[in-house]
Amino acid sequence: MPSPEPAIELRAVTRVYRDRPALGPIDLAIPAGEFLTVVGPSGCGKSTLLSLVAGFAPPTAGTVLADGAPVTRPGPSRGVVFQQPRLFPWLSVAGNIGFGLRRLSRSERAARVAELLAMTGLENAARLKPYELSGGMRQRAAIARALAPRPKVLLMDEPFGALDAFARERMQEEVRELWRSTGVTILFITHDVTEATTLGTRVIALAGPPGLITLDARVSEGLREKVEAAIRDAASARAGVAS
Amino acid sequence: MNLALRLGAVVFLLAVWQVVAWLKIWPPVFVPEPLSVWKQFIRTSTEGYSDYTLAGHLLASLRRIVLGCLYGISGGIVLGLLIGVVPVLRTLLNPLVTFVRTLPPLAYLSLLVIWFGIGEEPKVWLLLLAALPPVAVATADAVRGVHEDYLNAARSLGARPWEIPYRVVLPSALPEIVTGVRVAVGVAYTTVVAAETINGVPGIGGMVRDAQRYNHTDVVVLGIIVIGLSGLLIDYLLQTLDRRLVPWRGRHI
Questions:
Q1: Whether B174 contacts chain A with CB within 8 A
Q2: 3-state SS record for A209-242
Q3: How many other β-carbons are positioned within 10 Å of the β-carbon of residue A229?
Q4: What is the pTM of this model?
Q5: Interchain contact, B253 vs A75, CB within 8 Å
Q6: What CA dihedral angle connects A81, A68, B161 and A111, to 10 degrees?
Q7: Has domain A1-77+152-243 been given CATH number 3.40.50.2300?
Q8: Which CA distances in Å does B90 have to B78, B80, B136, B139?
């Protein structure tokens, strides 16, 4: 039996910004159902990687595939959670969650919104406006909005970077729970090594620019030290080249 | 407290005015007494002035303002969207809008009279042209300032390209557009009196113009006060509208 199609696949993908290589070449396959974290220092190209998978920007060379089909534009099969919640301030929480459900009938949409409100613990916030929510609730609403159209892949770009430590820990647990209950494939960007090595099932460390995969590992004991070493080595190697 | 302060200021101004009138430094043709302005208020409200009551004059002016602003604001929003979204149109239309915006509306009133005569049309056109540029400029700037994440979020949620302008761009730009509308109504307000200097009866501007011809200074002062007060009221209404439409203004989200 052939192995099932990866949810996301990058083949020799590079991205150049104004003559400056930002990413790649990257070869990466993310099997369906995986929780992959991408960790690296700021400016290493990890957000570029996410925007290529999301379809916000085209690769300079190579191909990005989602479910075997080339990614040419953003679409509801790949939900995105940004660093800032970016909820639409003119819509209520329920309105934000329902934004991507235009094609459902009114009653189907209401049912799906209610389901997501319950899943993210926002039942009592349905009618509130984004500016009436705490930081953690906003990010939960943003996750609910991204999950509403039942994406196969959830792309998260340092979603908890702006939260305080307490809220961040809670959100990490909730995301793991959402991942378990929905079976969605997650690509999670972070610069926090602890977050990267505890949250997902697989970690890649990115160093750059141009962003290159310096480590690709399954999450296990002692992984945090390995990731730290990989990032350190890449940094000192670059420093060696520069001098 | 605030109300008391404001009332106090009004009473103080009235008192100063009354004292100056009593001292008779200037004849009543220059400085009419508050009381005679009040009497003119009663008389124009009941008997009328230049064949129309005060309410008739005010309503005629308000009608022109409302019409001119409706056309000007709608046109300004559409034009601003186009300028903000289509780069070619930005290059073409931006200088034109700025050109019209810097002109004092009176500068083209004569041209409008030649084109449209002395009826209602040139007045409404003048107010339209006065109200349109602030809204167009505010909308265009706001449209270009919409954060990319909002557009990307909408696309990721399956919004079609043609849905983006009205589902995301326009509501995102709403705070700036509403501010532009307030500026536009203010400009239309200051322009209406000028628009009514030619065949402006009924209309507050026409009434003031007639009163000036016959040295009815108390009616002139009455007209000024009525314009000022109704302007305050309208700005208050627009502020209320602003809070209703853009409750997220100034909040971090």
A1: yes
A2: CCEEEEEEEECCCCHHHHHHHHHHHHHHHHHHHH
A3: 13
A4: 0.82
A5: no
A6: -60
A7: no
A8: 13, 9, 11, 12
Do B156 and A80 make contact, defined as CB atoms within 8 angstroms?
yes
**Superfamily for B35-245?**
MetI-like (1.10.3720.10)
| DSSP element (H, E) containing B213 | helix B204-213
Exposure on the CB side of residue B157, measured as CA atoms within 13 A = 31
Strand order in the sheet with A69-70: A20-30, A8-17, A61-66, A69-70
User: What is the largest distance, in Å, between two alpha-carbon atoms of chain A?
Assistant: 64
Q: How is residue B189 written in tokens?
A: 């307000």
Minimum distance, in Å, between the CA of residue A124 and any CA atom of chain B: 19
Domain ranges of chain B: 35-245
- What is d(CA B25, CA B44) in angstroms, rounded to the nearest whole number? 27
Question: φ and ψ at A111, to 5 degrees?
Answer: -65, -45
Contact check, Cβ <8 Å, B248/A148:
no
Whole-Å CA distances, A25 to A36, A37, A45: 19, 19, 11
- Per-domain boundaries in chain A: 1-77+152-243, 86-150
Which pLDDT tens digits describe chain B residue by residue (253 residues)? 788 998 999 999 999 998 988 888 888 888 888 889 999 999 999 999 989 999 999 999 999 999 999 999 999 999 999 998 888 988 898 888 888 888 887 788 888 999 998 889 999 999 999 999 999 999 999 999 899 999 999 999 999 988 998 899 999 999 999 999 999 999 998 888 888 988 888 999 999 999 999 999 999 999 999 988 999 999 999 999 999 999 888 776 6
ipTM above 0.90, yes or no: no
User: Can you tell me the distance from the alpha carbon of A93 to that of A88, in angstroms, rounded to the nearest whole number?
Assistant: 9
B156 touches chain A (CB under 8 A): yes
A46 touches chain B (CB under 8 A): no
Q: Is B253 on the interface with A (CB under 8 A)?
A: yes
**Beta strand A153-157 with A185-190: parallel, antiparallel or unpaired?**
parallel
**CB contact set of B247 (below 8 Å; sequence gap of 6+):** A129, A131
Query: Length of chain A, please?
Result: 243
